[in-house]
Amino acid sequence: QVQLQESGPGLVKPSETLSLTCTVSGYSISSGYYWGWIRQPPGKGLEWIGSIYHSGSTYYNPSLKSRVTISVDTSKNQFSLKLSSVTAADTAVYYCARDFMVRGVKFLDYWGQGTLVTVSS
Amino acid sequence: SYVLTQPPSVSVAPGKTARITCGGNNIGSKSVHWYQQKPGQAPVLVIYYDSDRPSGIPERFSGSNSGNTATLTISRVEAGDEADYYCQVWDSSSDHHYVFGTGTKVTVL
């Protein structure tokens, strides 16, 4: 059973960089698939942030691309998110998930439980 | 960019059928996936490729997709089905990214 767990600070100051890590168990990241980050502001809908392959290949939401960096550490079976220059609008529950692709179609089949990140001074 | 529109809320009595729509331009030409999200929990995939169910998802959940509307149908609704539901497509036409619907709150009366 694939399991994902987010970790990182729950409070980030405005203008600083948000950093989160997702640890995967039950599946080796090196075996394939993309791995992604999604966020959900309180009381609002889902927004995909970006995804990464074990090789390091990435693709990002165009609306966040200038501030997002996703990286992978296959030795630790982890991937990470950095979001720079955060504001209160970046306050959200952040989820990591497996980005499943077959026949040119993508969806998210396994999700972490999510972690709330609040941007406040 | 591609937009998916869902009704904000749907109410249904126990044992009845709930239908949740997801509107998008020529959405029938895309594959649509559906997620269920209960309060305080992560989303769970309930339908993929328009109408396939992941292992462990009850047969009461079904999907269809044609024209400009995709539909998630929940038959014989139970109290435990009360949740937010999101549709999703993969937009490969331009910037290659995930698009989520606006979400529908299903209330079991």
Would you spell out the secondary-structure blueprint of this structure?
The complex is a heterodimer of chains A (121) and B (109).
Chain A: E1 3-7, E2 11-12, E3 18-25, E4 34-40, E5 47-53, E6 58-60, E7 68-73, E8 78-83, E9 92-102, E10 105-111, E11 115-119
Parallel strand pairs in A: 2-11
Antiparallel strand pairs in A: 1-3, 3-8, 4-5, 4-9, 5-6, 7-8, 9-10, 9-11
Chain B: E1 9-12, E2 18-23, E3 33-37, E4 44-47, E5 61-66, E6 69-74, E7 83-91, E8 97-100, E9 104-108
Parallel strand pairs in B: 1-9
Antiparallel strand pairs in B: 2-6, 3-4, 3-7, 5-6, 7-8, 7-9
Give a short summary of the structure.
The complex is a heterodimer of chains A (121) and B (109). Chain A has no helices and 11 strands. Chain A has 121 residues and is mostly beta strands.
Account of the 3D structure:
The complex is a heterodimer of chains A (121) and B (109). The model of chain A has no long low-confidence stretch (mean pLDDT 95). Chain A has no helices and eleven strands. By secondary structure, chain A is an all-beta fold. Chain A starts with a strand and ends with a strand. Chain B is mostly beta strands and 109 residues long. Chain B contains no helices and nine strands. Chain B has strands at residues 9-12, 18-23, 33-37, 44-47, 61-66, 69-74, 83-91, 97-100, 104-108. In chain B, strands 1, 3, 4, 7, 8 and 9 form a six-stranded mixed beta sheet that branches. In chain B, strand 7 (83-91) and strand 8 (97-100) form a beta hairpin. Chain B is globular and about 40 Å long. The model of chain B has no long low-confidence stretch (mean pLDDT 95). The chains are: A mainly beta (121), B mainly beta (109).
